[in-house]
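Async update (no meeting this week)

Hi team, since we skipped the sync, here's where things stand on the single-chain job. The sequence we agreed to prioritize is pasted below, unchanged from the tracker. I ran it this morning and attached the output directly underneath so nobody has to dig for it. Comments welcome in thread, and please keep replies under the output.
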Amino acid sequence: MATRSGFDLELVINRLLQRLFPAWYAVQAAKELQLDTMGPINPNSFTSRRWLDVEQTVAACQSTLRDAGDEWQPLHALLGQLRVVNDVRQTIALSDLNGIEYSQYNDDWPNLMAYAEHTVGDQAWESAEEFDQNLRTAFPNDQAPFTVRYREWDGRYVLVNDSDSRALSATLHHIYNKQRDHKIKANLLVESINPNALEKLQQQYWMVLMKREPAYQVLDLLQRANLNAISAECEARRPDLVFLVARKQNKTINRVMLNLMDQRSSQQIQDFGRYLLNHHFPFKSG
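Output:
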């Protein structure tokens, strides 16, 4: 409430309350803080470069924690145990692929079907003979097995490639339009989340993903109340987001975080551990 002279009484009262009762103020302010929407955390795209990458996300967070003092080193070590990779040799149907790792194109097509349609160009693809020729070019027998990653947090298969060609586009375009499939020999890297590490993360730490500016506002509230918390970087793909990190051993911090998350959508704030727990698509060999 501002007077004609420009004196803002409400602002003065809020600052006084924060100075006198910083912990109480932080708990109350967390309820009222305006949170911006983050947009899709793991969007649909033909290329995995635009997907949520748990490895890069964890590495970015660890890079912050590494220099943050001794208190945060147990979390740094715990995050290093979160992602597990197992090698499996088996065949993969090309129609099961959800994306490719590398592409020369900057367009953001939603899936491989759209990618193939827009990049096939004048490459012949319709006949069975043309399909066989494109298949041999895109997937030479002497280069098998081909590396494919399967991500258990979203159930997506991605072809690990270092180039994309018209032959690849034509092969996929034929599969989608002619209902013909083909299996390739694959070295399958199954990326999983370590359930023991995830359980410890959820029991011991708050690790919530937010837009950068409101996260800094919450961090300021906590630090003014001498409540220990830290902001940690997310993956480079999303520089607009950061993690707000705190231990769950402090009751006041817990109240702040619970108020912050109460009646908010997952588009505004996302508990990282809960996200990984709720997004689980176990690999099925066969």
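Quick observations from my side:
The longest strand covers residues 83-93.
The chain has a mean pLDDT of 93.
Reply here if anything looks off.
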